[in-house]
């Protein structure tokens, strides 16, 4: 996850460095006898806790809108607490109010942004919990969960897809499929080992579950293929979701050896699961063919 946020980390360090240089330029160092060690301990601890929040965010969350709110809200708190701590070591002239404003204003703004991000995070967790609770309830009756990714398998997808096809056709609603296929996954397993392949599958399933909506059904259709069922979703909207996933997948981990993936989206217009899966296979084959053609040397 750190690789996804390297630019955020660099900009954060530059922001804190600029605050330090501004403080040094605006004031003068206090004598050691003027230090209030109790304040230094309290403000230093607060700063470390805020830095810990930043570390947790960038180490546990993929890039996305909610992550942006959480990160920049926490960063404003870190900036405010950092300047507040510098105030214990540097004395500013009474005529200069800029440092006082920089100490005070970012904290409440950061708290508002962080709170908005936490609301989004809470919504994500509720969606994931609903999906997990549904899986747990179904697993008590049917052994249809893939043990590695904890996603439903092909049998469950076929049953739900047939039901959704009948439901959407009777109500004249839209229905789409999103297919994520890992290219040359068997070769990846041979080169890097089954453990690396299993780790990649687990990370990929977590990414799909977090990036798609709670109403979508994500399944592991085959060893190297995932299919998401998108109810009430027209093909243009499904294409936008597919493009979003294409942007997220290359940043799945810090490794540069991860296999490539092909993502396609298509509307379900067929009257049976067999025909819908055949159309998905054809769309996937065309996408792979187009990708191979685009990279073909001149």
What does this structure look like?
With 298 residues, the protein is an alpha+beta fold. The protein folds into 2 domains: 2-124; 144-294, Alpha-Beta Plaits (2-Layer Sandwich). The chain has 10 helices and 6 strands. The chain has helices spanning 6-26, 37-60, 65-86, 98-104, 106-139, 154-171, 185-192, 194-211, 235-248, 273-294, and strands at residues 28-29, 90-91, 175-182, 217-222, 225-231, 261-267. A hairpin with a 2-residue loop joins strand 4 and strand 5. It is elongated and about 80 Å long.
Shape-level CATH architecture of the largest domain: 2-Layer Sandwich
CATH topology of the largest domain: Alpha-Beta Plaits
What overall form do the CA principal axes indicate? elongated
Helix content: 55-70%
Count of the domains: 2
Strand order of the largest sheet: 4-5-3-6
Number of strands: 6
H-E order: HEHHEHHHEHHEEHEH
Topology readout:
Blueprint: H1 6-26, E1 28-29, H2 37-60, H3 65-86, E2 90-91, H4 98-104, H5 106-139, H6 154-171, E3 175-182, H7 185-192, H8 194-211, E4 217-222, E5 225-231, H9 235-248, E6 261-267, H10 273-294
Antiparallel strand pairs: 1-2, 3-5, 3-6, 4-5
């Amino acid at each position: 996850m750190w690789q996804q946020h390297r630019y955020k980390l660099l900009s954060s360090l530059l922001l804190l460095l600029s605050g330090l240089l501004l403080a040094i330029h605006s004031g003068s160092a206090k004598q050691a006898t003027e230090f209030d060690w109790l304040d230094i301990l309290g403000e230093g601890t607060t700063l470390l806790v805020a830095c810990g929040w930043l570390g947790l965010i960038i180490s546990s969350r993929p890039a996305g809108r909610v992550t942006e709110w959480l990160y920049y809200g926490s960063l404003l708190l870190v900036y405010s607490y950092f300047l507040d701590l510098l105030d214990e070591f540097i004395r500013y002239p009474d005529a200069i109010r800029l440092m006082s404003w920089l100490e005070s204003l970012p904290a409440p703004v950061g708290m508002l942004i962080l709170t908005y991000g936490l609301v989004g995070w809470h919504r994500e967790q509720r969606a994931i919990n609903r999906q997990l609770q549904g899986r747990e309830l179904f697993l008590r009756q049917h052994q249809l969960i893939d043990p590695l990714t904890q996603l439903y398998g092909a049998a469950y997808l076929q049953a739900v897809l047939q039901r959704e096809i009948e439901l959407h056709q009777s109500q004249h609603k839209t229905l789409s499929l999103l297919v994520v296929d890992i290219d040359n996954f068997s070769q990846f397993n041979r080169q890097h080992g089954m453990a690396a392949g299993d780790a990649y599958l687990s990370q990929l399933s977590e990414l799909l579950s977090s990036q798609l909506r709670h109403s979508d059904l994500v399944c592991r259709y085959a060893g190297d293929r995932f299919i998401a069922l998108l109810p009430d979703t027209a093909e243009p909207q499904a294409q936008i979701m597919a493009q979003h996933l294409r942007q997220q997948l290359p940043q799945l981990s810090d490794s540069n050896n991860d296999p490539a993936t092909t993502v396609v989206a298509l509307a379900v217009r067929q009257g049976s699961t067999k025909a819908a899966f055949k159309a998905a296979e054809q769309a996937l084959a065309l996408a792979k063919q187009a990708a191979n053609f685009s990279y073909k040397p001149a």
